[in-house]
Amino acid sequence: MACLSPSQLQKNRNLKPRVVGSQPGAVQATAPAVLWERFQEDGFLVLEGFLSADECEAMQRRIGEIVAEMDVPLHCRTEFSTQEEEQLRAQGSTDYFLSSGDKIRFFFEKGVFDKQGNFLVPPEKSINKIGHALHAHDPIFRGVTHSPKVQQPHFGGEGGPAAVTPHQDASFLYTEPLGRVLGLWIALEDAVLENGCLWFIPGSHRGGVSRRMVRAPAGSAPGTSFLGSEPTRDNSFFVPTPVLRGALVLIHGEVVHKSERNFSDRSRQAYTFHLMEAAGTVWSPDNWLQPTPELPFPPLYI
């Protein structure tokens, strides 16, 4: 997961963003003030050419190496879902997911295992997401997360075929006050209509948060629950946001977004992480993702 804080967008170095669970010419062609206004208005912003093709290829090679070496016990093979009931039953009830904030762990697509948990497809085709500490433990992804491109933007995560239902990141990464979490979503391959690009409801970040995923008390089952509910939204409100390989999409923590199922024969790999503005912000102790003594949320500027 990856994200930028509002203070970074304003380039205010007096505040302290922290990482929680990139043609440069195209970015520079628009005035910083115009980009900032666009982000404030829509709740998301596309910066094409943020990473080069070589940088994207290096990250994809590294993921291939990590997947080739993965060894997930049968009882930990969790199918990842964003459907609420499945979410609570699968990852929300397993320690493998709930304790993954400071580790590199693997979460899988639906239908890739038989009843015994054995792979029905090649393992490299089974992955929905890898999380949630690539940014901390892997040098390639740590280098991108803390690169000068991220620390000094030009203005003032997960991949797979499964659809991602409409949601707000702040439902899972809640802060007080709101508006302190922002996501970085970097396309390692072209993300277009056919293979599951992002869709947004422009301006939806100004309406608050409709639901929250919270941790249950220790020893309770399931391990998480939802407060509130996700309202039914008119699909006509969503705007598709196709991007080319190397593009960065900035995502406000409260903007409503989704992705459709990938029905094409092309993959759609992306790297995403989040940043939180540390100064004057309280990270909710009810969030499923919590810093640990082994891995507190690292400062962006290291």
TrEMBL record:
It comes from Odocoileus virginianus. The keyword Ubl conjugation does not apply. Its cofactor is Fe cation. The keyword Metal-binding applies. The lineage of its organism: Eukaryota, Metazoa, Chordata, Craniata, Vertebrata. Belongs to the PhyH family. PHYHD1 subfamily. This is Phytanoyl-CoA dioxygenase domain-containing protein 1. GO terms for molecular function: dioxygenase activity; metal ion binding. Gene3D superfamilies: q2cbj1_9rhob like domain. 2-oxoglutarate(2OG)-dependent dioxygenase that catalyzes the conversion of 2-oxoglutarate to succinate and CO(2) in an iron-dependent manner. However, does not couple 2OG turnover to the hydroxylation of acyl-coenzyme A derivatives, implying that it is not directly involved in phytanoyl coenzyme-A metabolism. Does not show detectable activity towards fatty acid CoA thioesters. It comes from the Eukaryota. Keywords: Dioxygenase, Iron, Metal-binding, Oxidoreductase. InterPro entries: Phytyl_CoA_dOase-like.
